[in-house]
Amino acid sequence: MGDRPIFLARYKNLLTRGSTVAMGLVLAFGFAAGIVFWGSFNTVLDATNTEAFCISCHSMKDNVYQEYTTSIHYSNRSGVRATCSDCHVPHEWTAKIIRKVEAAKDVWGTIIGRIDTPEKFEAFRLTMAKREWTRFRANDSLACRNCHNQEFFNYAQQDRRSAYMHEHMLKQGGFTCIDCHKGIAHNKPELEGLEMLTPSRLVAEAEERRSGGTVRSWRNDK
Question: Which tens digits make up the pLDDT trace of 106-137?
Fold first, then answer.
């Protein structure tokens, strides 16, 4: 009887040590599994951001990709290329995941063949374009500004109209990159009144302000 409390105490200690070891093994396994999962998840996520993945669907490769290869974002004097994900996938983690979830409907559209012919693609082009323009306008053309910083523009090397538009946007706001650069990488749908700010209006405003010298680049005009 006198040994019983000692036996129970030893048994309790054994169970406690066993629980501690088991808990340690569970935590170690969970940590390792988390690293493997996170690494695999990011690898797959990065793969879906590549140009090769984007054009693996022939509706993209045969349509917008062909337009993109003739644009300055594909080939230019500096050799810096903006790929599909640079413009269509946010860089920030949370926004990127939200965008990936939204892209699920694009996969469904591919499965059901919504744009699997040039004719279907053209018929749906305006709908797709408006969706992207709305997204760009909502975040103040963040995808553009990830690469282009207005603070560092050399306005003296821009033509008169561009210099005016860019400085006006920087100082006064009211519009964003996508309002004037809708066709920068892909063909624009044919639609009257497509631009929010037409080039003719911008040029007229630029000419009116030129005499006052309010735009720095005009001081160097000859």
Answer: 778 778 888 888 888 888 888 888 889 889 98
147 CB neighbour count, 10 Å cutoff: 11
Q: Which of 155, 166, 139, 154 is nearest to 217 (CA)?
A: 155
Location of structure tokens 């405003």: 205
Q: Report the share of the chain in percent with pLDDT over 90.
A: 10
Neighbours of 88 (CB within 10 A): 16
Amino acid (one-letter) located at 11: Y
Instruction: Report which of 58, 69, 179, 45 is spatially closest to residue 110, judged by C-alpha positions.
Output: 58
pLDDT digits (tens, 9 = 90+) for 180-192: 888 889 988 876 5
Virtual torsion, Cα 188, 152, 159, 80, nearest 10 deg:
-50
